[in-house]
Amino acid sequence: MKVIVCGAGQVGWQIARHLAAEDNDVTIVDKNEALVNQATDTLDVGGITGFASYPDVLEKAGARDADMIIAATYLDEVNMVTCQVAHSVFGVPRKVARLRAQSYLDPAYSDLFQRNHLPIDVIISPELEVAAAALRQLAAPATFDSEPFLQGGLEMVGIILQEDCAVLNTPLRQLSELFPTLRAIVSGIRRNGNLFSASPDDQLFIGDQVFLFTHKEDLKRSLEIFGKANKKRERVIIIGGGNVGLAVAQNLENQSERIRAKLIERDRSRAETAAEALERTIVLHGDGLDMDLLEEANLKTADAVLAVTDDDKTNLLVATRVKAAGCPSAIALVNDPTLSSLLEPLNIDAFIQPRATTVSSILRHIRHGRVRQVYSIGDAEAEVIEVQVMASSSISGQKIRNIDFPEGAMVAAVQSGDKIVRPNGDTVLNDGDFAVIFSLVADVPEVERLFQVSIDYF
Q: What top-level class would CATH report for the domain 358-456?
């Protein structure tokens, strides 16, 4: 597949990295020559320096025979014009744009992006995606990562094992014997910084970061078995009143269960905007690192603090400070994935990584076959892929034990009709079933090949 990625920032670079690793023909475009050179020197991609919306620049990038264009520059307007030029001049079949301004995302103006107006096939909103991730994290306080699959019937949670885990030093194959009715499976383990796909003989140890897939109805029981209590959060303090913080506060106000939220924003104009947009949320103007202000926001009674400013260091410091002050849960928005190793040393409960969230959204639309969802784990370490089994694929009608899955991949769940099951070697993947696959990034192309049907290339 030939793809043009416009924008060599964090998101564009990561998308190019994913696609190039899977032997796609990738060209990256950016007006910053240094970023383009960095991408071409580091990745197996071509590079063009110039404005992505200019027709001559897109032509140099190979737009005339491109299969897809992904516009992920920092400017919404450039992304929209790029898609328009790609459609009108070059007839590029698939166009993805990243849009940040909330006005463009208002449902009242959804007609704007039809093919006869602004022809964008897929719109990705980083702020809304990150806000949704923050809300999921607030709903699962015992985890450092959380993502729903199979239309909400399956939950993937990341948990750090401690002394109170009931299944420490137990081979994973024995979990089904100890808990025969539990619809849960451990698919990935990160130990000493190394992420690997779990095997039946693997044991769990204190300090392991475990990626657990569980039926939604069994989530509470699964967390209890692994030593985690999912305490309900009723009082939340949000640090940062930008698009993400405001979206989280608005969603909390709209939830049926009453959650008392307070929002702290240091920019007066932004704080006033948030106060006008919110009804029940108390908005405080000031620095989220100010302990006097945090005490005014009743930090002592807060169940969680969510730090979502546009500065990683501020978010890390806020989270560290409130944990030291006794807050049960601190969640920090962190753009730099290399900082994820500080999760335990700083005693922070969870990170939200915008880049991984946005990349997951885009990957969902560029995977081959009948892929319904993709979630990127860590710094492009692994992916969780939700894919439909087609009758014409080689694996249809096969038992899992007879399918030649790569070593770094495993089936985490199977949905047949309305039933979600914990798979084993005898589970058969039938036409129409949905499978959730945990796979290390290096093995993703082989997983795609197993499920791919040529007619479903896009």
A: alpha beta
